[in-house]
């Protein structure tokens, strides 16, 4: 579902995505900002489209290793519940299906169970 779908065809001011692609840029209104986190792999942006969209693109690396030990402890001690971000729950042998669903934007985050 795109930002324009969620806003009844109005654009959003600050869409956010895991990597900068055409969907968040086309969802942002002129003068808006697109935020992304992580390193983009195999993502190509049309410079002219970005320039004429009048959208600001902001992002950077995700220093996961810096925060991972603390987060694992919080999850292990049940201080936080990471399950709220998962919208697809599949057995481990269907991992390829889970990745496909996330790639096709049918799922935000998949939980694979052993």
Can you walk through the features of this model?
The protein is an alpha/beta fold and 114 residues long. The protein has two domains: 3-60, 3-Layer(aba) Sandwich (Rossmann fold), CATH 3.40.50.720; 64-113, no CATH class. Helices cover 34% and strands 18% of the residues. It has helices spanning 3-6, 22-27, 47-53, 64-76, 95-103, and strands at 16-17, 33-37, 56-60, 88-91, 110-113. The strands form two sheets. It has a three-stranded parallel beta sheet with strand order 1-2-3, with no helix packed on it. The chain has a two-stranded parallel ribbon with strand order 4-5. β1, α2 and β2 (33-37) form a beta-alpha-beta unit. The longest helix is centred in the middle third of the chain and has 13 residues, at 64-76. The two termini are 30 Å apart. Its cofactor is Zn(2+). Keywords: Metal-binding, Zinc.
Which characteristics define this entry?
single chain; 114 residues; alpha/beta; Rossmann fold; 3-stranded parallel β-sheet; two-stranded parallel ribbon; globular
